[in-house]
């Protein structure tokens, strides 16, 4: 199988290869043809607006190919974009006269522009002699002065059926098949994003379809963090840096680890690297304090330090920065021993919490964070899931922390046992008493009545004893195991 990403390999070459989006494509075609007929449209810029992976960029490339344009692709959020656009807007006219290929300016991320950049771009649109196409996920976040000068073309979120159509087309071309359930699962998870679906399909096929569920689960977390970090490392703007991680579904300490391990590839001057690491270590201090005091409001400061603090630390390497997952999160490359530990932990989560494998995988990620930051709660999970020390070490990834949690779990076990013995003792006493009282008379009704009288007294005493055990230390409640699925909230609500 080839290494070329399928999203590139199967990028539509012509508008007729695009899936759905008929209305949008009609509008784009009419607009570009107006340019070609020497009668530029009233609005010289176009904003293709819609959810990710629905064909906005693909449209621009297909149209350029069909109509013979050269694309100048620029990122609208880059502060230097304005100068470049200016250069092309000016240069293009002369080039046209010389008979060179027409230029089409494509500005990605128009919803991420600085206000000053926006004013300049708006002026350039007025002077433009070439089509300017912009792309945005949220058109209302495109600065107003730019929006007013552009025609909006809306792209729809693709349906599951559209996604499956796109995937099947690729499978045909590659001469491959995958089970129908896997295709449906990918289409469902993609949430209208064909790019994500194609990437998932390629990952699943290259990883062997038996592991499809696992691969998909890991990709879910990794996808958004890759995107967020790429944006974080591309900006010098503190505010934007804070914003890009908002949608990342990850605990701050995990995010810190991702940023930590990728930093050396982003900055190259030693003093800048040092500044970035200083910001990270302050974030780490906040995280530690949050854990000790239970004041999780500090997470916000920690996150600000690791995003804004890092973003403004110095001069970054230019161009594409590849983001690597930190070793601890890179589950797909675990050793055999780690894999078998992970599987045994997963089996326990599935059994005790009545979860399917995918949910159990998600739960495992949450447990990792809890084990790292909340040893008391972690100890309850150890008892509840009946984990052994090796499994605890696997989850927390640190021998010392594992032993602390293990010690706490032993105490809980001990208390549970004491409570169990007490209850057993009371039960036996109550039974003995009821047998004694019931002897003269046979018959169920009488037995029940006597047993009730005696057990009330005994149980009262027992409950007092149990309370005193409970008050003496840890809570020893377990979430309900049977019947309803137990969730992490059963635990979180208790501490
Ligand atoms: N409507 C579509 N028809 C055919 N292929 C599509 C369509 N939408 C997306 N794709 C596939 O997904 C890939 C990514 O799509 P594209 O780059 O056009 O997304 P986008 O809408 O520009 O997303 P973003 O907003 O994230 O930039 C394309 O290369 C193509 O392979």
From TrEMBL:
What Pfam families does its record include?
A: AAA (PF00004), RCF1-5-like_lid (PF21960)
Q: Where does ATP bind?
A: 50-57
Composition bias of kind Basic and acidic residues appears in 425-437
Q: What are the GO BP annotations of this UniProt entry?
A: DNA replication
> Does the keyword field hold Nucleotide-binding?
yes
Please indicate if the UniProt record lists Nucleotide-binding as a keyword: yes
Give start and end of each AAA+ ATPase domain: 42-159
- SMART domains (UniProt xref): AAA
Q: Which InterPro entries match?
A: AAA+_ATPase (IPR003593), ATPase_AAA_core (IPR003959), P-loop_NTPase (IPR027417), Rep_factor-C_lsu (IPR023935), RFC_lid (IPR047854)
Q: Which Gene3D superfamilies match?
A: 1.10.8.60, P-loop containing nucleotide triphosphate hydrolases (3.40.50.300)
- Which purpose does this protein serve, as stated in its record? Part of the RFC clamp loader complex which loads the PCNA sliding clamp onto DNA.
Per the similarity annotation, which family is this?
Belongs to the activator 1 small subunits family. RfcL subfamily.
Q: Which HAMAP family match?
A: RfcL
How is the subunit organization of this protein annotated in UniProt? Heteromultimer composed of small subunits (RfcS) and large subunits (RfcL).
What is this protein's name? Replication factor C large subunit
Q: Which gene encodes it?
A: rfcL
């Amino acid at each position: 199988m080839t290494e070329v990403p399928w999203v590139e390999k199967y990028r539509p070459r012509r508008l007729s290869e695009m899936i759905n989006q008929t209305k949008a494509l009609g509008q784009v075609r009419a607009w570009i043809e107006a340019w070609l007929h020497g009668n530029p449209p009233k609005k010289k810029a176009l904003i293709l607006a819609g959810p990710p992976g629905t064909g906005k960029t693909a449209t621009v490339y297909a149209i350029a190919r069909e109509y013979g344009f050269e694309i100048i692709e620029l990122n609208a959020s880059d502060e230097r974009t304005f100068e470049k656009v200016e250069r092309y807007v000016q240069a293009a006219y002369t080039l046209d006269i010389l008979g060179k290929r027409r230029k089409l300016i494509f500005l990605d991320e128009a919803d991420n522009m600085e206000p000053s950049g926006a004013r300049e771009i708006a002026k350039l649109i007025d002077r433009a002699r070439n089509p300017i196409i912009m792309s945005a996920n949220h058109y209302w976040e495109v600065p107003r002065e730019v929006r007013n000068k552009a025609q909006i073309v809306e792209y729809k979120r693709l349906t599951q059926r559209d996604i499956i159509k796109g995937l099947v087309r690729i499978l045909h071309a590659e001469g491959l098949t995958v089970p129908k359930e896997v295709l449906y699962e990918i289409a469902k998870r993609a949430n209208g994003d064909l790019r994500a679906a194609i990437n998932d399909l390629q990952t699943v096929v290259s990883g062997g379809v038996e592991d499809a569920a696992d691969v998909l689960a890991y990709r879910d977390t990794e996808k958004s963090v890759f995107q967020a970090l790429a944006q974080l490392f591309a900006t010098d703007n503190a505010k934007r840096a804070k914003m890009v991680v908002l949608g990342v579904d990850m605990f701050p300490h995990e995010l810190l680890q991702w940023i930590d391990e990728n930093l050396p590839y982003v900055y190259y001057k030693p003093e800048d690297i040092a500044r970035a690491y200083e910001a990270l270590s302050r974030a780490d201090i906040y995280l530690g304090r949050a854990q000790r005091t239970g004041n999780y409001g500090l997470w916000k400061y920690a996150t600000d330090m690791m995003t804004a603090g890092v973003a403004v630390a110095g001069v970054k390497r230019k161009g594409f920065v590849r983001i690597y997952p930190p070793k601890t999160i890179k589950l797909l490359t675990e050793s055999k021993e780690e894999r078998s530990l992970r599987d045994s932990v997963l089996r326990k989560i599935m059994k005790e919490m009545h979860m399917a494998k995918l949910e159990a995988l998600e739960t495992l990620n949450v447990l990792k964070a809890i084990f790292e930051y909340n040893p008391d709660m972690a100890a309850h999970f150890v008892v509840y899931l009946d984990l052994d020390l090796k499994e605890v070490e696997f989850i927390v990834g640190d021998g010392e922390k594992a032993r602390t949690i293990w010690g706490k779990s032993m105490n809980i076990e001990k208390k549970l046992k004491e409570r169990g013995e007490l209850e057993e003792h009371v039960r036996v006493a109550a039974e003995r008493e009821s047998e004694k009282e019931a002897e003269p008379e046979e018959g169920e009704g009488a037995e029940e009545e006597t047993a009730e009288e005696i057990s009330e007294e005994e149980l009262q005493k027992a409950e007092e004893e149990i309370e005193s055990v409970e008050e003496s230390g840890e809570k020893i409640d377990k979430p309900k195991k049977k019947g309803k699925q137990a969730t992490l909230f059963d635990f979180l609500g208790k501490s």
